[in-house]
Structures are given as C-alpha cells and as structure tokens.
Amino acid sequence: MVRPAGSLLPAGFSSHALRVLQKVQRGLSPVELVYTSHEHWPFQPGLTVHTRPILHISVLDSSFNPPTLAHLALAKSPPPSCHGVSTHASTSFGLDYDAKLLLLSIRNADKSMKPGDATHIQRLEMMQLLSQDLCSTDNTKTEYDCPSPVNGNIAIAIIDEPTFVGKSTTLLRFLQTRLASPINSSSLSNTTDRQDGAYSLPHPKLTFLLGFDTLERLFSPKYYPSEEIMTQMLRGFLSPNEEDCRIVCAHRTSPGVGQTSQKELHGKAQEVAQEFIASGRIILIDIGAREQTYSSSEVRAKVAAGGEAWKWLVTAVIANYIMGNALYAQPTF
C-alpha cells in the first residue's frame, strides 16, 4: 500500500507554510524560511563553528510546478570545483556546498499562476518532499558527480522578488542577519573549540542553480530598463568585488526543439553572457542525458493527457503527491 504523501510531511509544515506565505504576500517580510533541517541552518548540522571565512550556499530557484528529476539532479550537482573549474575562487569549495536552499518566488518576471497550476502551498509541500529525496543516499548521478560528505543541511524559503539580481541582494542581507542572530552567534561564542578573538562569522556566498531557459531570461534585455543597466546590474550580481554570486547552469535539450535551433538558443545566451562564462562566474554542466530533457510543463501536459508516462519524470513520492491531490488533471493555459 502506498503511503499518502501528506503523511511524509513534518508535523505542522503546511500550517506554518501558510502563515509565512501570508506574511510575505502582505509585504511584512521580503523573505521567510518555511523549513530548515535543523535550527542552526545554514551552519552544518552538528557543528557549532564554521572554520572557513566563506559559507557556500547553493540556491535552487524554480517554480517547482512540479519538481522533476531534473530539479533533483541539479540540486544534487556538486560545486564548481568538482566540475573541473580551475578558477581561483573555486579552490575554497569542498566536495559539496555547506548548505542548500530551495527557493520559491511568489512573483516571477516571466510566469504567472494559471488555472490548474499547483498552489503556492502545494508547491512548498512538494519542495519539502523533494528535500527528503535530496537527503537520501540514493543519489541521482551525473557525469561530474563527486561524493558528498554532507547530507541534510537544507532549507526551504519563499521570497517576494521576481529578478535574480534582486533575489541575491535580499537573500544575502537575510543570511547575514541570520548568521549573526543570537541562536547562531551564541553557539559560536560558547564553543570550546576556538580561542577568544580567533573566530568571526563567515560570509555567505551564493551559487544559483539554473536551467538553461532561466539563464536566457537572466541575460535578456527585455527584463531590464536598458542593456547598459542590465550589464551594470549583472556585474554587481556576479562580480567577486560586489555580491560575488555564481551561476551553475544545466544544459537543456527541450522536447520538440531541433538540435540546430537548440544550438542557436545556446549561442544567443552565451554571446551576452560570454564575459561571465570566460571569468568562471557561470559554469555550464550536464545533469544527465535523460534528466536534461525533463521539464515541469511536460509533466503537467502528460498528466492532463492521461496515462502514466509522466511518472518517469518525477520521484515516486512526488508522483504519489500529484495523484493524491489530483493535480494537473486539466490542461493548464
């Protein structure tokens, strides 16, 4: 007998998610944590001190409508140093990120909620189920997989910011405040493993995990007042002297898009992004021959069409959740 997906959620998760969602929707807070795997996140579980000056956090920002195996593979992808990237900054990475964040924006620069879509709460519930798969030892392998010594240091958040540049600024401010909060700073000050004055709070550094279609939107001038302003904002976002973010982007093969057209799409985005690709601020990776073809829109279309072919595109627990909540039974427009 299949266990109902709702019973796999932590007690009180949905009611808490609703409270913080309403808080963000009302403009009372720009970003809120819906779930953390332990109270000291983003510090690693069981550790009271982070010995390096940088705390590397991956941010998987998506609509999660629904999460697919492509989301899981991208979330499990190792940091840039494991992909053979020889940039100076990549040497501070270990075999995995120090912490991982699944992020849902209640506003999107290019997408709006349509009839038949999963609600925000349903997406957050599926994100929590995805985080459980992310913690599992049954790893989704990619060409560049590295062994991961740290599992389970995961959080889920919602944000009211439609652009990546804005998300970066908001998240960095939020994380710096959280790292300095009493619950974290007290654990650092009380540790017996350091000498007085020998330790300071680490600086959060964000790596955004994207699909290629999202990368194209990031470098599209139509989302900015002008191309000049776009370049200025992106340099502030990606420059090591400013917000110092990175982008890890999965190659994508879209169903129904011919190979030549796909190469043209890649070429247009890379032309604009070449400055950042050349400097190692953007890294393109493979997440798997099958996974790179999967998309949430394909899942929704196949569910609406009937049959069970869509189940191969998601994890078993997400498939169970979709069926249990009768999601996507009608085509979305």
UniProtKB/TrEMBL annotation:
Q: What is the lineage of its organism?
A: Eukaryota, Fungi, Dikarya, Basidiomycota, Agaricomycotina
Q: Which UniProt keywords apply?
A: ATP-binding, NAD, Nucleotide-binding, Nucleotidyltransferase, Pyridine nucleotide biosynthesis, Transferase
What name appears for this protein in its UniProt entry? Uncharacterized protein
Please provide, in alphabetical order, the Gene Ontology terms of the cellular component aspect for this entry.
Answer: cytoplasm; nucleus
Q: Which GO terms describe its molecular function?
A: ATP binding; ATP hydrolysis activity; nicotinamide-nucleotide adenylyltransferase activity
The UniProt catalytic activity note for this protein reads:
beta-nicotinamide D-ribonucleotide + ATP + H(+) = diphosphate + NAD(+)
Q: Which domain of life is it from?
A: Eukaryota
What's the source species for this entry? Paxillus involutus ATCC 200175
Which Gene Ontology BP annotations are present?
A: NAD+ biosynthetic process
Name the SUPFAM superfamilies for this protein. Nucleotidylyl transferase
Q: Name the pathway it acts in.
A: Cofactor biosynthesis; NAD(+) biosynthesis
**CDD domains recorded for this chain?**
NMNAT
